[in-house]
Amino acid sequence: MAKVKYDMELRPNPRSGRYRLISANWKMNLNHLEAIQAIQKLNFLLRPSDYSYTEISIHPPFTDLRPLQLLIDSDRMRIRLGAQNCHHEPSGAFTGEVSAPMLARLNVSYVIVGHSERRQYFNESDETVRSKVKAVFNSQMTPIICVGESLQEREQGETEAKLRTQVDTAVSFLPPEIAERCVVAYEPIWAIGGGISAKPEDAEQGAVTIRGIFQELWGSDVAGKVRIQYGGSVNPTNAANFMQLENIDGLLVGGAALDPESLARIIQA
Ligand code: PEP
Questions:
Q1: Which one is catalytic: 149, 153, 187, 204?
Q2: Helix 126-138 to helix 159-171 angle, to the nearest 10 degrees?
Q3: Are 147 and 210 in contact (CB under 8 A)?
Q4: pLDDT digits over 160-219, tens only?
């Protein structure tokens, strides 16, 4: 299991020592021609200092990965390629699926695992998420593990218990030197796609809970290295409020990441 190779010019957050990561989840949007245009425009809008401040990963549909890989390589863009999902087996009779080794061959660095839409529409359980985390690490990539509570769970005071179960099931089997490389995205389900984000204090509380679970499992050294993103209706206006938080190291952005101008403004916020 290899480490993500950091861009030499990328600077960690001096306060936490962790590298910031802003990830664009395009979901089932943008065909490969539209994707090429979007990433070219994004690269045009970003300044070298933006890439030094934060790592950027783009997670397009599978059909866009190969053209974007070629473009990123040929234009030496400092953008990381990401995927939105993978199967947990390396190969086999799983019609319609894509494996982690296949993504690794496309220079994919980050794979979103356990997004709430996958859990809701494709019945992904905490155990499925766990097997995907293992598959992603086995292929020398990094999982972005999505966790978060529903509105009903929040209203019933079950947020912490839900995060605990999701995080613990997904990562507790990892050895500490791998666990510290995890990226966890705290995405309250009620904040996704609706335009109403969590309050910064709620995002921070979710991140504190998640970091606390790593602390209990492996101690403060590992917990201090894990990167935690906030996701849920992030836009250019509210992005900075989340990036300032002590335990938030980045953002997972859906709708607002489809427009390169708005994504660039989020990165620069
Ligand atoms: C997401 O899908 O991970 C997400 C955060 O979406 P949005 O930004 O549109 O709420």
A1: 187
A2: 40
A3: yes
A4: 999 999 999 999 999 999 999 999 999 999 999 988 999 999 999 999 999 999 999 999
Q: Catalytic annotation on 153?
A: no
Tell me how far the alpha carbon of residue 219 lies from the centroid of ligand 1, in angstroms: 31
For residue 204, give every residue at least 6 positions away whose Cβ sits within 8 Å of its Cβ, in sequence order, or none.
245, 246, 247, 248
Rg value, the chain, Cα: 17
β-pairing, 250-253 with 21-25?
Answer: parallel
Q: Which residues contact 24 (CB under 8 A, 6 or more apart)?
A: 56, 57, 58, 59, 82, 253, 257, 263
Domains defined along the chain, listed by start: 21-40+53-87+98-268 (3.20.20.70)
Q: Which of 91, 88, 86 is nearest to 103 (CA)?
A: 86
Query: Ligand 1 pocket, 25 CB below 6 A?
Result: yes
Contact 211, 247 (CB under 8 A): yes
115 catalytic? Reply is yes
Which residue's CA is minimally distant from atom 1 of ligand 1?
A: 254
Pocket test for ligand 1, best of 111, 116, 192 (most atoms within 8 A of CB): 192
DSSP three-state, residue 228: strand
pLDDT 10s digits, 129-165: 999 999 999 999 999 999 999 999 999 999 999 999 9
